[in-house]
Every structure is written in structure tokens, then in C-alpha cells.
Amino acid sequence: MKYHVDEKGYYGEFGGAFIPEMLYPNVEELRQKYIEIMYEESFQKEFHQLLKDYVGRPSPLYYAKRLSDKHGAKIYLKREDLNHTGAHKVNNTIGQILMAKRLGKTRIIAETGAGQHGVATATVCALTGIECVVYMGEVDIARQAPNVARMKMLGAEVRPALSGSRTLKDATNEAIRDWINNPVDTHYIIGSAIGPHPYPDMVTRFQSIISEEIKWQLKEKEGRENPDYVIACIGGGSNAAGTYYHFLDNTEVGIIAVEAAGKGVNSGESAATSALGKVGIIHGCKTMLMQTNDGQITEPYSISAGLDYPGVGPMHSHLYKSGRAEFYSATDDEAMESGLELSKLEGIIPAIESSHALAIFKHKKFDPDDILVISLSGRGDKDLQTYIDYFKLA
Ligand SMILES: *Cc1c(COP(=O)(O)O)cnc(C)c1O
Is 65 known to be catalytic? Predict the structure, then answer.
């Protein structure tokens, strides 16, 4: 079985590029050039220099002793929460801004839901002095005021999406419309391992720095490169794709994905795509997505804004369908409890997205000598108000 993308942009039956004809020149230019550009020596040098000096990589691989004692396995946390801007998303935006520069683009657009990807994009645009427009649903702008302020401080223009439910999918539609109208000078920075080929593969390759580091870090600590399991939460799937990447072909390494069950998989308020989804087309690729019987996309729900996405990237649909990965889903309550547990046991307050990965211990038992690496995709600062309200901390 093949788990990496093929020449046509597919992972098994999933992927491809289902785009309006007017976007074809943009996407085709990227498809033809992305691999060559990405592996040029000068690109690699600049990318790795910025990851080191600006993002603060390598992110530590931390042995969580008290958490390990509690759950009866050797648990390592990959500390993406310590990156500049507080999560893994910046690995991708740094890569894509360098790509955009080499393609001669002078303007960046992005879409954002909770604002995390918008902030990561505005950050790299400030870093390089490139114009930045971020589309965001009007409802999300009201809900995510601190991130809107951050983007503005960083010099980005935040444009409200006023149609539909005025959330992420509407912002995405606006961004695509902008791209169609500005095909020559503009690069669209997609924020997860989703979208038309080559986006899922390009984003995955930029995020694969996570598993590249895990291999040498684990070798240093345990004398072996391969853990027994790698575990990550899945929204669109970029932190997971980066965490799995260098282990995909080694079937001795178990791959575990945790989705957001929201208020329960069958509650009608959920984002557990693998359990609830069917094959369809979203944002230009064929993948599993939550939809009604007549193919309308269902509004997803999760307490964590970053997992509140109605689909998963095509790689993950293939990992699910082929049985290469085990998929679980954690409810809001399970994630919140797991986030509080990590805070108390290790002194690390995780993003609520990452807390879903930590909730694996409510669903699966491990052997005491199993070595686990969990992607701690982000820090909890942005979620403090949600933790306060949930646990009545104030
Ligand atoms: C955005 C986000 C996610 C979800 O996105 P993926 O593309 O699935 O990784 C997970 N964790 C954090 C901290 C995020 O900000």
C-alpha cells in the first residue's frame, strides 16, 4: 500500500484538484514548480534558518514523566506549542511565503476561522514585507477579537465574509473568489493539509519537519528512531500529517488520529468526520466530509475552533479507509478534562485542539513499555477564556 501522494495528486481514491477553470493557471503553475523550488538548496537553507532563528526550532521532544506514570506508557510530547505564534501552523506559512516569493507573487490571501492561521499568515507577511488580506466570517470576527487585533497589528487587512453562515466556509469562498480575480500577482496560503493538489502534499512536506525531528530526538533519548505510536488531533490534518510523515511507510509505527466528537458523535453537534463523513468534494479535493444526503456541507461543531472543520485532508481519508491509522474521537468534555490533567501533571496548558490528542487515554490502553509520541500542536493561552468558562475558574 502506498501512503504518499501519487503523481496525479491522489492518496488512494482521495485528493485531486477539482477547481474552477479560472484557477487552473494558478494551481497548475504551483503543481509544476513546488517540488523543484522546495528542494532547491537556497530554499532549504532559508527555510531551515527561519525555522531555527525565527520559529525557535527544533521544538523539544519532552518526556512527560508524571503523565506516563498516570497512564502506564512512555509518553513523549512534541512541543509545537513552543513555536513562535504558539502552534505548528507557522511551519507551513513560513514555507509558503518563501514559495510565493520564488513564484514572483507580491500579494498574499488567506482564510481563517478561529484566526490562528490568519495570525500565522499575517506574521510571515510582516516578516517579508508582503501585502496580506485575510478573509474571515463576520461571526468569527466577533468571536475571535484578540486574533483580529493581532492580524491588524501585524499589518494585515481583515475582510469580513458576509454571506451564508458567515464562518470559515464562507471565508474560504471569498478567498477563492479573490484568487480568481487576481490570478497573476496573488498566492493563496491554505492553512491545513487540504485543498486542491498540490496543497495537501506541499503543506504536509513543510510540516514534516515535525517527524523529521522526532526521529533524531527519539534516537538520542531511546536509542531508536521509531516510536510504537504517533498520536495527533485532526482538524484539516496538518499537524497530524507532519507528525506521521516519516513513519507512514513503517507499519511497525502505529498511527493514531483523534477527531473532535463535540457534544457526542451522534448528537448533531460534532466534527468527527471519519465517523460521520461520506466521500465528496470540498475546497477542491475529493475526501471524507460531513454532508447531508443531498450533498450540502454540514456545519461542524467542536469546543475547539481549530478542529471545527467539516472535512479532513485526503491523506487522512486514505489512512482511514486503508486501515493504516486508527481513528478515535474525543468529546468536548473528554478534551477539557485531558487539558486540565496535563496542566496539573506537567505544568503545560495545551491548546484545546491538542487536548483532544491527549484524550486518547480515555479510549485506548497501551502497554507499559510502549513509546508514544503525542503532537502537542499548540499552547492554551488563546483558549484561556474557554477554560475559565468551562471550569468556572473565575
Ligand atoms: C489549527 C490548529 C489545529 C488543527 O489544524 P490541523 O491542520 O488539523 O493541524 C490543531 N491544533 C492547533 C493548536 C491549531 O491551532
Answer: no
In one-letter notation, the amino acid at residue 237 is G
| Å from CA of 392 to ligand 1 middle | 25
Per-residue HEC secondary structure of 133-176 comes to: EEEEEHHHHHHCHHHHHHHHHCCCEEEEECCCCCCHHHHHHHHH
For residues 139 and 120, the model is more confident at 120
Q: Could you tell me the pLDDT band of residue 299, with boundaries at 50, 70 and 90?
A: confident
- Cis, peptide link before residue 198, omega less than 30° from 0: yes
- 18-50+89-203 classified as CATH 3.40.30.10: no
| Residue 221 annotated among the catalytic residues of the structure | no
Q: Is 329 a residue of the active site?
A: no
**Closest to 154 (Cα-Cα) out of 146, 162, 142:** 146
What is the number of other CB atoms lying within 10 angstroms of the CB of residue 384? 12
Q: How far is the CA of 237 from the centre of ligand 1 (A)?
A: 7
Predicted pLDDT at 168: 87
State how far the Cα of 391 lies from the Cα of 394, in Å rounded to an integer: 9
Catalytic site residue from 338, 346, 377, 382: 377
Average pLDDT of the chain is 96
pLDDT digit string, tens, across residues 37-55: 999 999 999 999 999 999 9
For residue range 303-351, what is the model confidence (pLDDT) as tens digits?
A: 998 898 889 999 999 999 999 999 999 999 999 999 999 999 999 999 9
Contact 88, 239 (CB under 8 A): yes
Domain boundaries in the chain? 18-50+89-203, 57-87+208-391
Summarize the confidence of residues 377-392 as an average pLDDT.
Answer: 95
Pairwise CA distance, residues 202 & 92, whole Å: 9
Q: Ligand 1 pocket test: which of 80, 93, 116 has the largest number of ligand atoms within 8 Å of its C-beta?
A: 116
Residue 240 alpha carbon, nearest atom of ligand 1: 9
Find the mean pLDDT for residues 76-99.
Answer: 98
- Write down the architecture of domain 57-87+208-391 according to CATH: 3-Layer(aba) Sandwich (3.40)
Q: What is the pLDDT of residue 143?
A: 84
Residue 348 grid cell: 503545560
Task: Find the 386 Cα to ligand 1 centroid distance in Å.
Answer: 17
User: Do 186 and 179 form a contact (C-beta atoms < 8 A)?
Assistant: yes
